[in-house]
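The protein record minuted underneath.
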Amino acid sequence: MAESNPVKLRRQLVENYDSLIRHLSRRLGSSEFAYEALHEAFVRLERVPDSTEVQQPADYIFRAAINIANNRRKAGRYRVPASEIDAELSVADEAPSPAQIAEAKSEFEAFERALMALPERCRLVVRMISLDGRSAQEAADYLGISVRTLSNDYRRALEHCAKSIGRPLVSRLGRPRTRG
């Protein structure tokens, strides 16, 4: 009865181990890489079906180890180093949490209530300066008031809103900016 392929290949590997390692080391340029490839080939030899004709077992093992080494090199080119993966994973998620979203929504609703409590002219001043991006002069001309009155209305409105939502007023120097 003829030997099965796994038995024949294992026997050939044991008999020619030193020679295979020497040849693989020369071919691959590293004895460590040769050992790894040959050991991987040994594991795979168990899966060679008897229907596969193996005429030169030593050459078959050598070729299998070379193919394994080549596949590992190719895979190594496509792998991202662990340090790069760690760097990507350490990036903080900048999306707000559900709690932060709820808090922001609550603050915005409080701001809207504070804004609605203001006289209409003050609401218009805030909208025109802060939301519409109009200059102080444009807003003052539209409302038929002086830039100084507009500036006072704007400051009072912002102070009222900041106080209503429990936030400090961050004021910039000077009056509302004029665009020219």
